[in-house]
Amino acid sequence: MNDSYLNFVNSPLGARLARSLGLPKPEVLRRYREDAPEYDGLVAVGAGTAPQLLDALADVVASTGFTSVAHESAGLWVPLANRHGLMTGRFEPAERGSSARVAALVFDASGIDDSVRLDALYQFFHDTLRSLGKCGRIVVLGRTPETCDDPRSHTAQRALEGLTRSLGKEARRGITSNLIYVAPHAAHRLEGTLRFFLSPRSAYVSGQVVRIEADPTRKDDATPASSDWTQPLAGRRALVTGAARGIGAAIANVLAAQGAHVIGIDIPSAHDALASTMRPLGGTALTFDIAAPDAPAQIAAALDENGVDIVVHNAGITKDKTIAKMSEAAWHSVIDINLGAQERIDDALLAAGTLRDGGRIVCVSSISGIAGNLGQTNYAASKAGVIGRVQSMAPRLRERRITINAVAPGFIETQMTAKIPLAIREAGRRMNSMSQGGQPVDVAQTIAWLAQPASASVTGQVVRVCGQSLIGA
Ligand code: NAD
N or C, which end of the chain is more exposed by having fewer CB within 10 Å? Predict the structure, then answer.
């Protein structure tokens, strides 16, 4: 769907009008394009006391093509950074005449063990934020608070959440701000996630906190490094439900672009749309109503002995009415398609070993499942249930090295949201740090990151793709 306001205020006349009337001007977000460099420009790096993630950071910077510069107030750790080969220059704040626009600000706060040492964050972001270019990236790296033995460390690390989320709200201009907590001994598992949050692929993901955990089931704890970051899903088979249109079609496209063979499922009446989505991808189209009692067995049979590596539960419906006016059928079908079908399909694929060990499950939830929504008791219950499923299944699947995560989209421009009355639709679009709705591809890219081999250490989590929506924040 088209956001005509965004298009208008980004035209020369619209921009002038918006400026004179003081209207918000949402930025045209920079999204991933095959023909443009994914990582380009300067990264200003800062760190607090005793940073623990500089090695991992240096590896990512070296492999992406970014140029890194050290923030000048960081005198204490710059020699350390130089030893890691991280620094190629020094950061000059914009007001001191540096014309260089910065593409990303990354702060390693993993060693901060007391609130008195949070000042280093103030110093860094106070000096650098104005130099960050449009659609820039802010990433704060911390240590998972629950792994800190000492209350002071735990407290200081927890403080990073408030800082990171506020930076997203202050920065605007299409800038995202996210926090990655890394467990002890898991620094070498950071790369895939850090790459995602520095990339244009995460254009509509802001204000999120992701945890990288160490894998207690594997002594060597080695995440397979990706040999090709543009085709990380090469050789994988991915099942996507609701793939005929909207977010599901975008997921199929992005997974296929990253090398996966995609098996798309949709209802029989969407046969033609599903076929036209899957044909150019060389994928397989299967028509099933996922809520039918025999669907799980039929899907498992259709996947045959080749099995599947990635399952994306995307199919979903809405049947909105306040609960007093809602029919029992509307209640039941939403819970059954959005939640019950996911449970039954996973049970069948896991029991038969059709979803292979080391696999990935990604479930599509919604910010309605986090915040609740008027007229959506059925939908919000189903989507909150999806979050509960992810949290309860993750520890159970650890032994088989299967991860399960949820993405919770905010307002995404699809046929589902086109049905919303205009005034409510406009409010949904603007009430976030990006002042606009997301695109299906934004959800798809987030799912593709969670589906990658390098995301083995991200499980049981909910990542919102909502432009840092104020709803349920
Ligand atoms: P959509 O209506 O455009 O597409 C949903 C697809 O699922 C359709 O192709 C539909 O035929 C298919 N489907 C529905 N019931 C099915 C069934 N029983 N069996 C097989 N396929 C079935 O919706 P969308 O906007 O692309 O949403 C995709 C997912 O994202 C849904 O789970 C939705 O709840 C979620 N979501 C969307 C938004 C948004 O703003 N669009 C926000 C939050 C969450």
Answer: N
**Domain 237-465: which topology?**
Rossmann fold (3.40.50)
| Contact yes or no for 187/58 (Cβ under 8 A) | no
Q: Which of 213, 194, 187, 256 is nearest to 448 (CA)?
A: 256
Q: Is the CB of 342 under 6 A from ligand 1?
A: no
- 31-212 and 237-465 have identical folds: yes
Q: Rounded to two decimals, what is the model's pTM?
A: 0.94
Q: How buried is 150 (Cβ within 10 angstroms: 0-12 exposed, 13-18 middle, 19+ buried)?
A: exposed
Domain-by-domain residue ranges, the chain? Answer: 1-30, 31-212, 237-465
For 252, counting Cβ atoms within 10 Å of its Cβ (0-12 exposed, 13-18 middle, 19+ buried), the class is buried
317 touches ligand 1 (CB under 6 Å): yes
- Ligand 1 pocket member 244 (CB < 6 A): yes
Q: Whose CA is nearest to atom 34 of ligand 1?
A: 316
Q: What is the pLDDT of residues 237-268, one digit of tens each?
A: 999 999 999 999 999 999 999 999 999 999 99
CATH code that applies to domain 31-212: 3.40.50.720
Residue nearest to atom 4 of ligand 1 (CA): 246
pLDDT in tens, 134-155: 999 999 999 999 999 999 999 9
Distance 338 CA to ligand 1 centre (A): 9
Known catalytic residues are 379
